[in-house]
Design goal:
alpha/beta; 6 strands; binds calcium ion; Rossmann fold; 2 domains
Length: 226
């Protein structure tokens, strides 16, 4: 008996990933750790230090230090904010996301947010774009978790907050590591490939269904929920 749909945020509700990918690639490459924008999509969901360490291991043969991670992440945030400021200040909605949310609500199901983002303004932004869908008690953010995706922790925490078990939920995710986290939590996972990645990467992580866009998901959601 389905009770809730658990939504990832970046790349599912907001088209923020191009800005993150631009900022990651620019700052890391300037720092002497060559990184492509597509690498950012492949690592989407990791913590900042987790992402940076992938590249320090590759090019320097060691993990990133806490100081390096803080400095690089601080610069990445500045570049990301500049990128967004040049494009109207905030990431646009992902086309089709509002239809998906409305359909989920019409079926009487809870909407739960599960994001690695820890922005202060997160709830206000959700409310401005998707009014009435999310409440703080049913949100897991970067501030709540210790490990983050691809660890199942954030999805397990979301189930606990909603008071439901894994077989009473489904997940909507766009990133391979997000799919891995949700599948590891034992939840039926729908992948939506809103970025430039090979869709096979999402299937390889165990996604049960795959759609090329949130619009495509919204067109099939009725059948899935019934
Ligand atoms: Ca995402």
């Amino acid at each position: 008996m389905l009770k809730a749909v658990l939504f990832d945020m970046d790349g599912v509700l907001f088209d923020s990933m191009p800005g993150h990918a631009y900022a990651w690639a620019k700052v890391m490459t300037e720092y002497g750790l060559p990184m492509r924008e597509v690498d950012a999509f492949e690592n989407e969901g990791r913590t900042g230090i987790g992402t940076i360490s992938i590249f320090t291991r590759r090019y320097l043969g060691r993990d990133a230090t806490e100081e390096e991670a803080q400095e690089l992440y601080r610069r990445k945030t500045i570049v990301f904010n500049e990128y967004m400021a040049a494009r109207g200040g905030e990431a646009p909605e992902i086309p089709g996301a509002a239809e998906v949310l409305n359909n989920v609500r019409a079926h009487g199901l809870m909407r739960v947010l599960v994001t690695g983002s820890a922005q202060q303004s997160l709830l206000a932004r959700l409310e401005a774009h998707y009014p009435g869908h999310f409440v703080p008690e049913l949100m897991v953010t970067g501030d709540d978790v210790r490990y983050g995706k691809p660890n199942p922790e954030p999805y397990l925490m979301a189930l606990k907050k909603a008071g439901i078990s894994a077989n009473e939920a489904i997940v909507v995710e766009n990133a391979p590591l997000g799919v891995r986290a949700a599948v590891a939590a034992g939840i039926f996972t729908i992948a939506v490939n809103t970025g430039p990645l090979d869709p096979q990467l999402l299937l390889d992580e165990g996604a049960s269904l795959l759609f090329p866009s949130m619009q495509a998901l919204s067109e099939h959601l009725g059948e899935i929920l019934n």
